[in-house]
Amino acid sequence: MLSDPGVLALALLAALCIGLSKAGFSGISLVAVVIMADIYGPKASVGLMLPLLIAADLIVYPAFRKHGSWRPVWRLLVPALLGIGVGWFLLGKISELTARRVIGSCVLLMVALQALRRWKPVAFDELAESKGFGLGAGVLGGFATMLANAAGPVIQLYLMGRKVPKMELIGIGARFFLLINLIKFFLLINPLRFFPSTNLLMGPMNGTLALITHESLMENLKLLPAVAVGIFGGKWLLKHVPQVAFEWMVVIFSTIAGLRMLIW
Q1: pTM for the full model?
Q2: pLDDT digits over 110-124, tens only?
């Protein structure tokens, strides 16, 4: 797939966005979601993005382990697992077209939440302080991450609503997504593709979503350098680019991308 220079350039841009999102600009991950879905198809893109996200998590977590803690992660884990379960079930049942529309809807929902925080800060603060917001954020985040790898803005908005400082927010997010993405990895890999000798032991798992394959991992290797550039470039951007300007760019591009997935 990446033998075409134009397609390779788009995939590298998506990988760069993944790195930038892990450095603190989580909204730009929505751009990567849409690019990957266009290149590989809605379902296959979920499995292809996941190893890149895990690689990024493994780089970011050690860098930010002094910031934040695991306590907020444990609070979100149970509802997130519920959302992941629903998303995993649907991903195995829906068509490519439906998956494309669901991903587009998830992207637009993330944009709407960011717009609410920007345009109606008082209303957003009231929502963030409600008892059900953490539960809802966990379930929605788990669902969005399973179906579209698009939970970053949800979790970031939840933590912002709790008045978590920026550096702690990144540290907590690194812990949360490292754990969640590792769980997802075992839901999206078919062991029989890698270890055929396990066929007798794992017969009931033949229906596992085999979205991570040898071929997809080879594609990942071509894109990993761009992820690293995005992470370290994102650290520089945090110091030199106004956060508000960057967020507006992300909202605009994500809206266009989400509408494209949903409508045409």
Answers
A1: 0.81
A2: 778 777 777 887 877
